[in-house]
Input
Amino acid sequence: MKMLEGRIAVISGASAGIGKATAEYFAKEGCNLVLIARRLERLKELKKDFEAKYDVSVVIGAVDVSDFDQCKIFFNSLDEKFKAPDILVNNAGLAFGMEKLIEKPVEDMDKMIDVNVKGVIYITKLFVPYMVEKGGGSIVNVGSIAGREVYPGGNVYCATKHAVRALSNALRIELVDSPIRVIEIAPGLVETEFSIVRFKGDKEKADNVYKGLTPLYPDDIADLILYTVTRPPHVQINEVVIMPVNQATTTVIHRKQNE
Ligand code: NAP
Output
């Protein structure tokens, strides 16, 4: 028996990296999916691939999670059963640059706050009331070790991930009388498109982030998320911090030379 047979999961940021890997881990376990991201072509490919390979239903939405109207229009377009998922993974997120706060372009700061914080709030606000009414489920918020520490140049990104942690803790308090569990996953370095986005397409800078160590890969996080949402319903894993073995903090990283 597959672990998520017939269940429904909503995953934001499903077109790449952690979200995409999580979508595939869930689909393999028989989970139907609602996949959200801005790049529709990628979502179309995933829908085709997962429906053929895993015999699940996949609904896709080209949605910018930082725009409440877009989120709401997509939500309203869903069949009733997809409005009340068993699992909600708030994963969409990004960082821009490593400049000091006082040097950072305002547009970059706004975008990080809008996507990483408001995006989580908007998607939660739409789906979770239906999950409450249905009477169960798991909310997984993808935070970061940047939500526990601050590093040079991290400023606004760190602030947004501290906010994700605060929102996760707040939701856990507010949903304490319901069977819904709230899980925060806080990874260290994961090799995805994250650094390419952060450095606005500068591949050399992005590659340097992972140089000399074996980072985590999207599958490592997907595997962990799958584990947390498949515990017995009375078990709530509040938060998990996960790093590559050669990373101890955001800045203490052991790198082998010439690799
Ligand atoms: P990624 O490969 O760049 O994937 C990010 C995903 O978020 C993409 O699917 C992207 O899709 C989506 N996204 C970005 N802006 C969006 C928006 N406005 N609306 C909807 N979707 C949007 O990066 P990742 O590493 O997998 O990141 C996933 C999460 O992990 C983020 O919250 C990130 O902060 C967190 N995280 C990453 C690391 C790391 O080292 N990689 C470490 C800790 C935490 P579209 O571009 O198609 O919209």
